[in-house]
Structure formats: C-alpha cells, structure tokens
Specification:
Helix content: over 70%
Low-confidence stretches: 1-5
Shape: globular
Number of strands: 0
Number of domains: 1
Largest sheet: none
Distance between the termini: 52 Å
Structural class: mainly alpha
Length: 463
C-alpha cells in the first residue's frame, strides 16, 4: 500500500507540474486581447501584401473602408452582454438561486442540479448563464459547507458548463447570420435563420447529448468527501455578507420619488413583452435574431429591477464587461476590410479547400476555430475574421453555410476550457488560480472535443 501511495503521489506531482507549466506558458505568452488584435492587424496586412496584388497604400484603404463596418454589430453585442448581466443581477433571480441551492441535500444531487440549471440558462443566454453560474456556485460553496464538495472542482464545473453550453441561441455568429442587413448577408445569399443553426435538429441534438454528458462526467470526477477541500471560513464570511439595506428615505424630492418608482419601468416592460409575445405568436422562432433577443432581455431587465434607480445601477456594472467590444470591434472590422477587399479571403479559401473534403471540412473548421479561439477568445470578433474564407470554402466544397456556422460556433467554445481569458471573471469571483481549475476543465475540453469530432464526422453536412 505504501508503494502504491508513493506512486500515486508521484503521478499527481507529475500532472501538477504539467498543469503548472501549461498555465505558466499561457499566462506568459498569450497576451491581452487588445495586444493580439493589434498584432493580428499587422500579420494580416503583411499576408495581404505578400499574397495579393494590393500595394501598401491600397491595403491601408482596405483597412479604413472596413473600420466602421461593425458599429451596429458592436452595439448589438454590448446590449446583449449588458442585458444578460442586468437580468442575472436582479433580486428576483438571486433569491431564486438561493431556493434552488437549498433544495438538494447531497453533494451529487447538488452538482447535478447545478450542471442542469447552468447548462440550460447558458444555452438561452450566455451572459445570464455566466453571472448565474458564479452566483450559484458561490452560494453552493457557502450553504453546502460540510457536505464535502471540493471547492476548486465546483468552480471548474461552473466555468466548463458555461463554456460548453453557451453554444445556444445567444451565440453571436448564428444570431448575426439571422439578423437582416448583416455584413455577410450577400456572401451567403441571404439570411440564415436560427432554425438552421442554433435551433437546427443537428445542433439541438448535439447540445442535449452534451447537457446529459456533463453531469455524468461531474459525477465520475466528484472528489470523495475525505479528499475535498471546502471553502475556508474567511471566504465563506465574505461570500455570505449582505450589504445593509438603505431603507426608505423620508422627504424625497419629486425627482427622487420617480427614480424609486416602479410605475414607468413596469409599464414599459409590459408593453415591450406584449410585443415580444405577439412577435412569437405570428413568426415563431424562425425570425428570431440579435435585435429580438436584445429587445426581450432589455424588457425583462426593466421588469425584474422594477425601479429606474436599480436598473441603471445594474447597467453601470454591466457596462464594465463591454469595453473590449467597444474598442476592439473597429479594429476587427478593419482586418475584415483587408481580408475581403484585398483578395486575401480567396487565397485562404484556397488553402482550406486544398486540405479538406466535403466529409472533413466541418471538423476542420471546428479544430481551426478552436485553435484561433485560444488567441481571439471572443466568438463574435473572431467570426468577423474567419467568416469570409470559411464560408466561401464551405460553398466550394458543398458544405451548407448553416453547417459551417454550426461548426464554427461549436469550435469557438472548445478552447475556452483550457485558456485563461474567459476564466478570469470566475477566478476573480471564486478567489482561485487558473492552476486550481485547469486539471478539471481540461477533462471537460477532452469530453466536448471527442463529442464534436464524432458529431461532425458522422454528419459532415448536417442532418
């Protein structure tokens, strides 16, 4: 037994060293996304200079012509991120989270509930899911102390479930392709409704299978109670702290009374939600697009917060999540301008065609975009770069554009499990290091990667 224990310790130490080295490499060599978009601009410019007949000045013209192309898309993405935060930040949602957390009484049932709730919510809206997974995870850590739930494992499950199940109706690429007037509408010969992408039989089946596969892996990996490291007392006190209520202020000015009144937000929210109900009654989900999603969650945010003061306070916090989109999307649009206008898209398309067949192309897109995601972790901005050539190559190979979008959105989620960019919000919230969760998130990456490989090889052009 002593020899076995020693061998196990040696194996764990070796695994730990590998994890530490990988994490150190990521943190040392994967720069902030702003640095990467600047570097990528230079790389694409040089590629176009070498592989196309556009000269240095013409390429600058190409960059400038595309620079403002994504202003509408950037605003749409900002509203999606803010509206998701605002809904999840409401008192109603937070009180519901506490009731859900208190319902299961065992570690396995708690983790099962956690995976299913986070998975379903993330599929509907990744922004709400991100917030909910953090808030619910911290509540589980506090309220389930003594059950033996390993704290780093809990944080890893929160992160990986969000990464995997975010490939739903709020993903940027499918919503963009369904939105009238998008900059790729002419490229693919029209709109691609969500019923062919996020709501397609292929992707819906794939996501349902993943939704059930995640809890199975969680049950298998769940550390035993005797090996669990729970939340310490100091963090438990910090997470459980409730700020004191401000109470009603007497002798308010009329303007202050309106700021605290639920009348106007509730009235507007009900009118907006009535219109949403009418839209779905007349159109179903086929015409659902980015604008409709934002409209719906904007109304829900108003209704849930009730007062202008609460709503605006939450919006101010949510705006902090959008600075990358605001400042980086014009640069990505400039890159798109170079790729599209210089002819570089055709060159890269030819490269893809040369290494692909109809049967393998969708999987190649999954792998390629997963690799790119390690450096450009925003699915929306990365799609701007990749779309001109991955969609064109798919058309040449006979792979439907909607299935290329499905392959892209699936691959865009994979690398998030093993790179630290999107994990930063979780690490800050749970007070952990990336090294603490990577051993578990890597296994989720492997599971999701295997399932994606099988799905896109068996159905290379969709169902």
């Amino acid at each position: 037994m002593a020899g076995l224990s020693s061998a196990n310790r040696s194996e764990k130490n070796t695994s730990r060293r590998l994890v530490d080295r990988f994490t150190e490499w990521s943190l040392n060599w994967v720069p902030d996304s702003m640095v990467f978009v600047l570097a990528l601009t230079v790389i694409v410019y040089l590629m176009a200079l070498v592989f196309t007949d556009h000269g240095p000045v013409e390429l600058v013209d190409d960059f400038a012509s595309g620079f403002w192309l994504l202003l509408t898309f950037a605003m749409q993405m900002c509203l999606m991120m803010i509206s998701g935060f605002v809904v999840a930040d409401s008192k109603f949602v937070k009180s519901g989270i506490i009731k859900l957390v208190d319902w299961p009484k065992t570690p396995k049932r708690t983790m099962l509930m956690f995976c299913l709730v986070v998975g379903v919510v993330c599929w509907f809206h990744w922004g709400i899911g991100l917030m909910l997974s953090i808030v619910m995870g911290k509540q589980i850590a506090v309220r389930k102390r003594g059950l033996g739930i390993h704290y780093p494992f809990l944080a890893a499950v929160a992160y990986s479930t969000q990464c995997i199940m975010a490939n739903g109706v709020s993903q940027a690429a499918p919503l963009l392709m369904a939105t009238p007037g998008n900059f790729l509408e002419k490229t693919v010969g029209g709109l691609i409704p969500l019923t062919q992408t996020a709501l397609s039989p292929f992707l819906m089946t794939f996501m349902v299978i993943q939704l059930f596969a995640i809890p199975l892996l969680v049950m298998y990996l769940l550390p035993k109670k005797e090996n669990a490291v729970e939340l310490d007392e100091a963090l438990a006190s910090e997470f459980a702290h409730v700020p004191p209520a401000t109470g009603d202020v007497k002798d308010l000015r009329p303007a202050e009374r309106w700021e605290r009144s639920p009348v106007l937000p509730t009235l507007l929210a009900l009118v907006m939600l009535f219109w949403v109900a009418k839209f779905f009654w007349l159109n179903g989900v086929r015409k659902l697009d980015l604008n409709m999603v934002n409209f719906t969650f904007f109304a829900m945010g108003l209704l849930l917060h009730r007062t202008p003061q609460s709503f605006i306070s939450s919006v101010k916090q949510g705006v902090n999540t959008t600075f990358g989109v605001i400042i980086q999307f014009p640069l990505y649009a400039g890159i798109f301008g170079i790729i599209s206008n210089s002819g570089l898209a055709g060159v890269i398309t030819h490269w893809f065609i040369s290494i692909s067949t109809t049967e393998t192309y969708a999987l190649i897109v999954v792998i390629y975009t997963s690799m790119m995601d390690f450096f450009v972790p925003s699915g929306g901005s990365k799609f701007v770069i990749e779309a001109p050539y991955i969609l064109s190559a798919g058309q040449h190979l006979g792979v439907p554009a909607h299935h290329v979008v499905n392959a892209y959105s699936t691959g865009a989620q994979l690398a998030n499990n093993i790179q630290p960019f999107w994990a930063l919000a979780y690490l800050a919230a749970f007070k952990l290091k990336f090294q603490d969760i990577l051993p578990y998130t890597f296994l989720f990456f492997v599971l999701s990667g295997i399932m994606a490989t099988i799905a896109f090889l068996v159905f290379p052009t969709g169902l």
